[in-house]
Write a structure and sequence with these properties.
220 residues, alpha/beta, Rossmann fold, seven-stranded mixed beta sheet, 6 helices, 9 strands, 31% helix, binds 5-O-phosphono-beta-D-ribofuranosylamine
Length: 220
């Protein structure tokens, strides 16, 4: 059966490893989304090359070329709409949006943040997790709202915090989880399986599979 694929725009600022995970997922024929366009606000973002290697249009829209945040956001909208983008996935995009941009893509823009939100939003979530001495940490995919790293949660993945962890070792463990979680959540959104009711998400379908597992740290 030919699936109808949603056209996704991915916004990046750097390395692009989550972008790569999304590109790899979308190369599977039954995946319900295709990466139609990648935009970076930084000309030197490594992720641009991942897109080009996969034959995906990759554009630089440098925020430094715009007088105001609103002008930059308008240029983003113009490029995304010219490519008929239906959904946006933020993947390490390091710019704050105007409320107008967030409203324009309401319930059509998702983000991945490397913490179990609402814990540790903003900068240095791994340092924040170590400082709080939590034993489980992880990542969250959510719809984007005005406040940084806020919005209805689509999915989360947890990893243990291990003795001797640094922010770097913890970030690397979480990143592995991100690369599984983000393609999974984008699939659910692209399949229209997420309903948002009163700023909470309801996921359609049988979710009972594998749910008996408990991730416990320290382990028993
Ligand atoms: C990821 O940890 C993501 O969760 C955060 O920024 C980082 C981007 O990494 N928002 P990459 O560019 O996808 O490799």
């Amino acid at each position: 059966m030919r699936v109808e694929r949603k056209r996704v725009g991915v916004l990046i600022s750097g390395r692009g490893s989550n972008l790569q995970a999304l590109i790899a997922a979308a190369q599977v024929p039954d995946y319900p989304a295709e990466i139609a366009l990648v935009i970076s606000n930084r000309p030197d973002a490594k992720g641009l090359q991942h897109a080009r290697n996969a034959g995906i249009e990759a554009k630089v829209i440098d925020h430094k070329g715009f007088g105001t945040r609103a002008d930059f956001d308008s240029a983003l909208i113009e490029a995304l709409e010219a490519a008929d983008v239906e959904l946006i996935a933020l993947a390490g995009f390091m710019r704050l949006f105007t409320p107008g941009f967030v409203a324009h893509w309401h319930d059509r823009m998702i983000n991945i943040h490397p913490s179990l939100l609402p814990l540790f939003p903003g900068l240095d979530p791994h340092g924040q997790a170590l400082a709080a001495d939590v034993k489980l940490h992880g990542c969250t995919v959510h719809f984007v709202r005005d406040a940084t790293d806020s919005g209805p949660i689509i999915g989360q993945a947890a990893v243990p915090v291990l003795p001797g962890d640094t922010a770097e070792s913890l970030a690397a463990r979480v990143l592995t989880a991100e690369h599984r979680l983000y393609p999974h959540c984008l699939r659910l959104v692209a399949e229209d399986r997420i309903r948002i009711e009163g700023e909470r998400t309801a996921i359609q379908g049988d979710l009972s599979r594998n749910q008996a597992r408990v991730l416990m740290n320290p382990p028993d």
